[in-house]
Each structure stands twice: as structure tokens, then as C-alpha cells.
Amino acid sequence: MSKINIDRIVKDIKSKTTSLTPIIEAICNSIDAIDSKRTDGTIDIIVKRNNNPSFDFDTVHLPDIDSIDIIDNGIGFTEENKDSFDTYRSGFKMSNGGKGFGRFMYLKYFNHVSIESIFCENGKYKKRCFTFGHADEIIENETIVDIEFNETIHTGTILHLTSIKDHDLDKGLDVIARKLVERLLAFFVTGGENTPKITIKEEGGSNPIVLNNYIGKDSAIQQVGKEEPITLKGRTKDWEFLVKTYKIYYSALTNKICLTANMREVTDSALHNYVPEFKETMFEITNGIQKNFMIKAYVQGTYLDENVTTERDGFNFGKEDDLYSDLSEKQIMKAVAQIVKNYFVADIEKRYNDKKQKVEHYVYNHAPWNKTLLKDVDMESIPIGISDFDLEMRFQKIKFDKEQTARIALKELQDKHSKNEEETEDALEDEINEILKNVTDTAKNDLAHYVCQRRKIIELFDDLRKRIDGGKSHKESELHNLIFPMIKDDRDVEYEEHNLWLLDERFNFTQYIASDKVISHSDHKEPDLAIFYESGLFYRNGDNSITSPIAIVEFKRPKRTNYTDEENPIIQALRYAGKILAGKYEMPEGLEDVIVDKNVTPVYIYIVCDIVPKIVEFAGFAGLSISPDKQGYFGYNRDYNAYIEIKSFKKVIDDAKMRNQIFFKKLGLL
Q1: Mind listing the pLDDT tens digit for each residue in 94-114?
Q2: Which of 213, 236, 247, 300 is the most exposed place for a label (fewest CB within 10 A)?
């Protein structure tokens, strides 16, 4: 045959495998070599350790495993098997899922691999020995000798995996045994009583563990229900799958769905990715004793067998839906998750209700402004153990989406009305009311108290955008003071005296606000506004904690067009953010440092200015995206955990008008 570069093939294997992988491959090959109708099949896994193999198993520090022998009583390396083995990517065992590639996986993890095999051909017993080549020959040093028959002779193979390259195998046989059982579970279930007896033991036969004993009623691994067939509709045809679900009592790992191919585990995914209630540990109570277990669902099917990669570490179809795969991994996983969910419906229902109760408790006791959004929360997708902060962010996302939808609808309605002047006022009113069904009531109570004042503030802010006598623009300080008085903080300014709602409604519920005020004990150059939220959401008072968001606002003079690179407001704001995240700022009156963590504390940066070419350039350098109305930019800076938004003065006023327009209308101010 043609020569191949074996070392290069081995080095090019970049699959997600471990030293356990070749052992599993060897066991699978041994199972294939044993007639499925036999009831006396055996496979022994002999572990050989560094140093003296005779040691005390009760000691804490076991010697590392150096070599492993896998011994079976299968048919052995017949001439046909040998020819197949000596052919790169042989298709001899393709019907059983053979890839002709597993032999190279042995060489990836062990320095020396050899075979001793007894086989029978034409009524004669022979012994074949050879080593695995590293250069350009798959088989090296082959010898074949005849064996005189006697009653103790039987066929079989010994695979010597010698001198492990990386000592990443667990030392304890019980741990290795459990991992092997999980990875080979499909074989145990499919083979039934005819599954070979698989034993792992120390060199010399001590400490034997039979893998088969882990499975069955009252054992460490128990099947849940019966195997479930499912049919999934692909792009070109329907595909049949079989789902087998197990409880594994000794494992503390995550509940998983495993996709298999040709009886081998290939990939897995956490069950809670599809059913959040599976994230917490599963348990059952029997006679007052709690027993924890892990759920593992195995999926088999022709679609998986036909699409497994050569290294059996993945599949040749997409994880997400795409145009090139008949089915995606996500489609299969989602369908299987629902089957598993049905087995544990009582547990899932209880956990779902507990989660729902937690969400409602948070809203009614800590965040009543979210009451109107409760009906819009997707309880199914909320993770178990979600924090109040993350829960609030979900509510804010819902609110944002609803407001965006309403804005777009109102804009479309406005365009439609301007083109159709014959439309009656009543018809317009009906359409507006319909749109407003999608607008949250979150801030309506607060707005009702001073909606008239808001209208005046909006008009004043709009006037400050205009040029004054001589063509000059208003000063930055005038706009700044309108929104929040300079050189003051929220200990000096009453709730009704600031107008932060012009920028963002959430600013009305801040914990600490400093406006050009020295809040650093080491640096006196301050941002226009530094706003510290209470953890969870926007209270004016609350705990000083690392999860409390920080907002920084920078104002630039209206009509300003000339900016140097050193005056880049984005860099200025990020510099302030860096100082705050570095712990250089204090709470009011120096009571304590502002508690921050640069990896946890969220930062929100708002820059208010006219959108001029230099600002566009700065936004481009920062990787920001232009807003749909072309009046601003937004984006995220990972280094500072910062959401950045640039707003033109026009956008500030337009957004404020949009948010308040319906209230003005209801009060007859329009």
C-alpha cells in the first residue's frame, strides 16, 4: 500500500478528546469483536501504574497510571481484520460505525501501542503480534506463529497501550469505571444480557470492578421509563430518533442530553439550556433519606450515525439552524428536552411555581413599577436562581422592547396621518389607543404629578438648542443646569428640582448623583454627571454594592463642531469610568469608598452633543452603531463593561416628547 505520514496524522488530531478516549475506542472494538449472540464475552481492562505495582490501596496518594491493557475473548485479528486495519480509513466496519481512524487516537495519547492476538482460520489457531507504526507504516514488526490446539486455547486480543503521554487519567479505578460506564451506556442498554462482562482491575488482578454492575434496578444507574421514539421533520425528510433517559446517582455533574453515534457518546448539552428548571440538583426522598442524582438522556438515530465526524467528537451539521443541515443540534436537543421534562413533570412544575413565586415576590416587594410587565415575562426561560439584578434587567428589556415597538408604531401612524389628511380625529384616537396597549404603565403614576411641568421643561430645552443674538449658541452650562444643577449632588437637589428624565426615565430613582463635584480623594477632574444606581433598580437610597450600575453623562456645547482628538467625549467618559472602577471614588461625605468590581459593575455612558463629522468619526473608532433615527450611536465596550449611547440634542428632545406626548394629550395640553 502507499505510505502515509502517521506522526503527522496524529499531530493533526485536534478533537476534544482525553486519555480516556482511546480506552473507550478499544472497548468498543472489543465489543465488536465478540459475537453479539455470545453470553460469555469478557473484556478486561488492566491498569498498570508507575513504580511498584504492589501498593496499599487505602493510601491517599496512588501512583499515576502509566499503561493499560485491554483484553477480550473476541474473534481476534483474522487475516481479513488485519488487512482492514492496515488500510487507512478502511470501510470494513462501516456498517457498525467504524471510521478506520481510531488506531491513530491510541498514538495520540500513548507512546507505544502493540497487539497480541489469537485467531482461528481454516480450523487452525494462530498468534499474530505487531506494533503500531509511527513513521509511514501502520503495522510494524509483525509476526505470525501457529499454535498447537489444546482445551485452554481460545481466540482473543490483547491491546497494549503503553507509556501514557499526559497523566490526565483519574487515579482511582472507581472514578474511571463510572466515567467509562457513562460513555458506554448505550452499549450496555442495547446489548442487554449479551453485553460482554467488562471489568477494570489493577495489574495482578486486585481491586476488580465490574462495569455492568453499575446498571440496573437498585444500581447506581437506572433507566427512567422506556425508550422513547421521536420523529423530527428535516428539510428533506423525516428522521427517526430513540431517546433513553437515565438517573445516575453517583454523579454530581450537570443534567445532560447526549447525542450518540454508532453506540458511542459524541456531544452533550446541559438540559437547563432548554428547560431552566433542570439547573438545580435533582433528588428523591426515600424513607426520609435524600438521594441526589443526575439525569442523562441518550439520543440514537441514523441521522447521527451518518453525520458523525471522523474523530467522533462532533457532527457534520450545525449547532444552530442553517440552510445546509437537514436538522440542527439545537432542534434535536429541544425535542429531547421535552421528552425528559415529561418524566419529571411534578418536579418541574414545583420548581416552576417556586420560580414564579420568587419573581412575583421581587416585583410586589421590591420593584412595584414592574407590576404591569408581569404578564409579559417569559417564566419558562428564566433561569433557576436568577439574581434580582438580572431579573430587573429582563424587565427593563421588556419595557424597552415595548417602548420601541410603540415608537415605531407611532412614527408610522404619524407618517400615515400626514399623508391622509382626510382621516378623522376619532379614527386617529382609536389607533393611538391601540398602540398604547403596548406601552408600559411603569412611570405613569410619577408622571401624572408633574406632567404639566414636563411640557414646559421640554419647551425650554428645545429653546436652548436655538441660536441666540449674534448667532451664538447657548452655553453648555445652561443645558447642564436644566437637566441637573452643576457643582451639586442629590443631597443638595430635591427630587422635583432635577430633570434627568429628559435623558432616561430611570435616572429619577438614582442612589447618588454628583454633578461636576469632587467625589474622588485623588483626582479632581470630574465627569459632568456621575450617577450611582442602587443594586436591582434605581432607588434613591440603597446598598452600596458591586452590582449597582454606574451611569456617566457628558454634555457638549450645542452647535459645537470643532473637536480635537484629545477632546473625544467617548474616551473622556471611559477614562472616568476607569477611575470609578479602579475604586478612586467615595460615597457622600467620605463615608466609604464606592464599591465596584470592574468585571461585575455595569457602566452606562451617555454623551449629549450635536452629531457632527468629528463625533461620527469618534463613534466609528469606538465601534458604535448608528441608531435607527440617525440621531445617535450606541454600542458596548467590553473592557469597561460599558454600554455607550451618544444622543443628539434633537434626539433627547424628540425622545422626551415621544415619551410624554400621550400624557399631554390626555390632559388637553396639545
Answers
A1: 444 444 456 678 888 888 989
A2: 236
